[in-house]
Amino acid sequence: MSTTNPSTAQAPAKANSKSRVVVASLVGTSIEFYDFYVYATAAVLVFPRLFFPNAEGATALLSSFAVFGVAFIARPLGSIIFGHFGDKVGRKGTLVASLLTMGIATFLIGCLPTAEMSGWSFWAPALLVVMRFAQGLALGGEWSGAALLATENAPANKRAVWGTFPQLGAPIGFILANGLFLILSINLDNEQFDSWGWRVPFLASAVMVIIGLYVRMKLVETPAFQKAVDSGEVSKLPLGRVFRFSWRAMIAGTFIMLATYVLFYLMTTFTLSYGTAAKTEEAARAAAEKAGKIFDPESFAPGLGYARNDFLIMLIVGVVFFGIFTMVSGPLAEKFGRRKTLLAVTGAIFLFGFSFAPLFDGGTAGVMTLLIIGFTLMGLTFGPMGAMLPELFPTNVRYTGSAIAYNVSSILGAAVAPFIAVALWQAADGSPWLVGIYLSSMAVLTLIALFVTRETRDVDYENNSSETVKAS
């Protein structure tokens, strides 16, 4: 009897335990997002001065954000590369490769010369672009693999709950990255921080990458992928298959993620820029003179005038709500369904956009309220994505399909969001009301995508061949 059913006898030994899945998906995405946020914070705080010293004011900030956006351009390419191997070779090895790529690129950013060093005025920003591109490639393959690791190991009726494990990596990574920046900026003066302090978070990522690699090397393949291997259903060319049979799901998934991406990067990158920008032209002129720069009144847009450390603390408090409501969203999406939950939350995001200007004008209490509400909504919309996007696709193209949808949305939502927000901020003479309208507009597009998508909670995850997007 035992020789005729060896797979049954070996299954328990080969299964990933819950604790291993939690740690591997959570630790990996925490490291990935830590690496990503380290750059996002530096893009606001120091990179405009260190890598674009000849640009002034908002122009330098926009140049820094342009490099920030390079990673989002790379992410769809990363989703194709890592998605191909994730669907053809397996989830485990692909996740190890994505983490290693991100870790090396982030570490090397911490070693780069700056543009003010002799002979590096061109090569320093060019190398920054290359490293940023590598970060984008890695993150293009990371999220989907982590989401599949969690959801393909989840027990019945728990996919949305388990799908929040990798999603928690976003707030955890944010807190780690900005907490370390905060500690450094408190203990170092401006000259020390600009000279070498900004490098520490990038170099420190090496320690966390080693820990993440150790955890992921102990994984075994997910049951869903192993079933596809055993039944001979692994696709030879996942990219061609997903475009042929699941193109509707890719388009729907892209726009389902759109409001989430725009909300997140407005709540982090834009609010930090707006919150720490000089409140008056006189203050901006004085800051430029102190830094030895020429003040450009044409590029000046007034902000809230908060000290960098004070606003980072406010952001970290807000992100705590992000983490809490990411966990809350899993049971909600399991009980009410992914679609109904996201429809309600996206409707709230639409209304939230109209509160931007009133809350920003409400002093510290108003700004803190805006951050708490925004990050609460972020947790409620981001949490269910770990289950819903993968559920749109069958096993043999799930890595590729969910990765492409997730990362194309990153271009439409996140890559341009900081740039558009700064432009709207300037166009409105320092008021953020147009930025809020921008967020509400993106929420409308997400609502449309959700309306044309069927509920995915009850799909057969190991044999999902049903059409989840309504045909027009």
Automatic annotation (TrEMBL):
The keyword Iron does not apply. The chain crosses the membrane at residues 21-40, 60-83, 95-115, 121-139, 160-184, 196-215, 245-267, 311-330, 342-360, 366-383, 404-427, 433-452. InterPro entries: MFS_dom, MFS_sugar_transport-like, MFS_trans_sf, Sugar_transporter_CS. One of its GO terms (molecular function) is symporter activity. It is a multi-pass membrane protein. This is Putative proline/betaine transporter. It comes from the Bacteria. Signal peptide: none annotated. Keywords: Cell membrane, Membrane, Symport, Transmembrane, Transmembrane helix, Transport. Belongs to the major facilitator superfamily. Metabolite:H+ Symporter (MHS) family (TC 2.A.1.6) family. Residues 21-457 form the Major facilitator superfamily (MFS) profile domain. The keyword Cell membrane applies. CDD domains: MFS_ShiA_like. One of its GO terms (cellular component) is plasma membrane. It is found in: Cell membrane. May be a proton symporter involved in the uptake of osmolytes such as proline and glycine betaine.
